[in-house]
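Sat 14:20. Reprocessing the chain from the morning session after the first attempt stalled halfway. Input below, unchanged.
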Amino acid sequence: MQRTLLMSGNGGQGVRVATKLVGAAAAGHGYALHFARYGTEVRGTEIEGFITTSEVPIEGSAMPSTVWGAVAMHPAYFEKVHAMVQPGGLLFFNSSMGDLGQGREDIAVVPIPASALAADLGAPIAASLVALGAFASHTGLVPVGDLLEALPAFIPPYRHELLEGNRRALLAGATYAQEAITLAAEA
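Finished this time. Tokens:
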């Protein structure tokens, strides 16, 4: 099955690293195609990272008009991302930025307090990795263990002091998703 994930946010939120990380982890299970689009001033401008995974060669555009799943990290781009999710798809959003609501009945919208969880870990710049850990854990897009294994290759040597915080962020997101699913099932 071919699935495309869109992560969207502001430059500096870690979206590019997160989507490249998914691509590396997914490549071990089949095919993966990564495409990132961002403004000329990387920090503070919109960034979109698309990652398509498949067990067979990938067909179609690297930047499709609709996606199977999405993670919206910044409220400024929520409506645009929300509109791109295919019926039956899934949208996680960074609820630390505010309650953006459901809006559509044909997709699942899942709030995750990614920025708050990352800040609690002492790694506020790892919010996208919290959201990615939650999304991966919930959907099985790629195993969280594979993300953890691939992570060191995407952290530059001059930033290796951030590696442990980034690992904790992925695991915190995965744990949050598992607990939220359990609580929702019990409700």
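Residues 3-186 form a domain with the Pyruvate-ferredoxin Oxidoreductase; domain 3 fold (CATH 3.40.920.10).
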